[in-house]
Design a protein that fits this description.
Layout: E1 8-9, E2 17-24, E3 33-34, E4 38-45, E5 48-52, E6 55-58, E7 64-67, E8 73-77, E9 83-90, H1 92-97, H2 107-115, E10 119-120, H3 124-142, H4 148-168, E11 180-181, H5 184-195, H6 203-209, H7 214-225, H8 229-246, H9 251-257, H10 263-274, H11 278-281
Parallel strand pairs: 1-3
Antiparallel strand pairs: 2-9, 4-7, 4-9, 5-6, 5-8, 6-11, 7-10
Protein name: AraC family transcriptional regulator
GO molecular function: DNA-binding transcription factor activity; sequence-specific DNA binding
Keywords: DNA-binding, Transcription, Transcription regulation
Amino acid sequence: MPERSEADKRGYLNEGFRLFHLKDRLAQRLDYHYHEFDKLILLLHGKVTYVVEGVTYFLQPWDLLLVQHNLIHKPIIDPTEPYERVVVWLGREWMHARSDPEEPLDQCFEIARERGFHLLRGGGEQRLSYMQSIQRLEEALRSREFGGHRLADTLCQQLLIAVNRDILADRTTREETDSYRVDPKIEEILRYITAHLEEPLSVEGLARRFYISRYYLMHRFKAVTGYTVHQYISQKRLLWAAELIRAGTPVMKAAEQTGFAEYSTFLRAFQNTFHMSPREFR
């Protein structure tokens, strides 16, 4: 894994949603990255493995991967076959504006994150339904007829409703253990880190808590996530702080609330990650 101090933020979404239908014959190499929007990835053809927050998914054609905002992920693409996929970027404000109070459209992403499992693999009927939904959405986005934009907006909502229904019905592939690989100990540690970001966290403390050696923790954590323990904790704290600042929390309070002991450390790390000051970010 390449050394780095932070994950890259990739892509900016200025509209409510965007659809990309991409086909690459030369596989590009992508490092770990994250987005401020939610993302659906539908594999159409090719051999690709996706790593999402330490879980490795071995995708098959018509698999659907749900990647929530700020989740760190990376595709590993086999260059022997063309890589074709449909990717839908979904703005959080757009989804919120179109959600009912008890039925948020982004619930599927939240459930996937809580479960620590982000893959939907349906049967023939499900795959046909998703294929038709994507085709109708692509046609509406290309259309210059009356109401084309409104129709595309509605069709994207319908796609999300279908995904939510499948997630709520637990039509996932968790029982197919050959579809993913996870290190149970590292998964447990990742969940603990996420739940305790505001508290002091260190390699030594984590090693003691989970009854493993400091060396094994550092080595295995980097192998599974692509991060050192310190890099991962710092990145997660920064992403949380950014969320708080954007929601109106005072900068110094956000830094303290997300576990930064020194404001100067927070400020330097924030600027290195987002390439602007916290006040400019707001």
